[in-house]
Amino acid sequence: MESDKPVLVEFWAPWCGPCRMILPSIAKLSKIYEGKMKCFKLNTDESPDIATQYGIRSIPTIIIFKNGEKKDAVIGAVPESTLNTCIEKHL
C-alpha cells in the first residue's frame, strides 16, 4: 500500500470459475504494465480478514489502489478491454 505506483489486487479463490476465466487477461496485463503498476493476487480463502476489510462480497474482484487508497473496483469476469480502461485511468 506504500507503493509509488498504482497497485492492482485481484481477490480470487482456486475453486472460482470466473476467476480462472480472467486469469489469462490479468497475467497479460501484468506484463504489459510491468514497471508502471504492481499486480497482486489475494486468495480470499487464505486471507478472509483482508477480503472482509475491503468489503469483498463476490469474486473475482479487482481493486486498483493509488497512494494507498482504493480508487476503482471491477467485479466479475469482465473483458480484458474493461480492465485495461480501468487501469489506464489511474496511471
From TrEMBL:
GO molecular function, one term: protein-disulfide reductase activity
GO cellular component terms listed in the entry, alphabetical order: cytoplasm
All copies of domain Thioredoxin, residue ranges: 1-91
Matching PROSITE patterns: THIOREDOXIN_1 (PS00194), THIOREDOXIN_2 (PS51352)
Keywords: Disulfide bond, Electron transport, Redox-active center, Transit peptide, Transport
Transmembrane segments: none
Stored SUPFAM superfamilies: Thioredoxin-like
Pfam families from the UniProt entry: Thioredoxin (PF00085)
Cystine crosslinks: C16-C19
The keyword Transit peptide appears for this protein: yes
Keyword set includes Methyltransferase: no
NCBIfam families, sorted: thioredoxin
Alphabetical list of PANTHER family matching this protein: GEO12009P1
Protein's UniProt name: Thioredoxin M1, chloroplastic
UniProt organism field: Dendrobium catenatum
Organism phylogeny: Eukaryota, Viridiplantae, Streptophyta, Embryophyta, Tracheophyta
